[in-house]
Amino acid sequence: RSRHEGKKINYKDAIKGVRQAVAQKKKDEAAKLLTLAYEQIDKAAKKRVIHRNKAARLKSRLAKTVAKTA
After folding, report:
1. Which of 3, 18, 43, 67 makes a 20 to 30 Å CA pair with 58?
2. pTM of the full predicted structure?
3. Do residues 70 and 30 make contact, with C-beta atoms less than 8 angstroms apart?
4. Nearest alpha carbon to residue 44 among 60, 55, 34, 35
5. Distance in angstroms (rounded) separating the CA atoms of residues 36 and 10
6. What is the pLDDT of residue 3?
7. Burial class (CB in 10 A: 0-12, 13-18, 19+), 63
8. By CB neighbour count within 10 A (0-12 exposed, 13-18 middle, 19+ buried), where does 35 fall?
9. CA dist list (Å): 35 to 1, 7, 14, 48
């Protein structure tokens, strides 16, 4: 369990960064952070920290929120 904590923290922090950028209406920054978040989510799924379907769901929802920002 403790081996996965680092990966878990990384992908959660990446998601928080994207959501904060969206909340501040910074679309360019959110788009940049989205690619970084994708990387962290994919790494977590590859190491089986999270299930691949959860990874896909997270990525989809993040993309939707970034697309909605004006």
Report:
1. 3
2. 0.91
3. no
4. 55
5. 10
6. 84
7. middle
8. exposed
9. 27, 16, 9, 20
Contact status, residue 57 vs residue 24, Cβ threshold 8 Å: no
3-class secondary structure, 1 = coil
User: Tokens 């989205």 identify what position?
Assistant: 34
Token pair 């959110």 is found at 30
Residue with token string 């960064």? 17
pLDDT tens across 28-66, in order?
A: 999 999 999 999 999 999 999 999 999 999 999 999 999
- Single out the residue of 65, 10, 2, 69 nearest to residue 42, CA to CA: 10
Structure tokens at 18: 């994207």
**CA angle in degrees (0–180, nearest 5) for 38-43-49:** 115
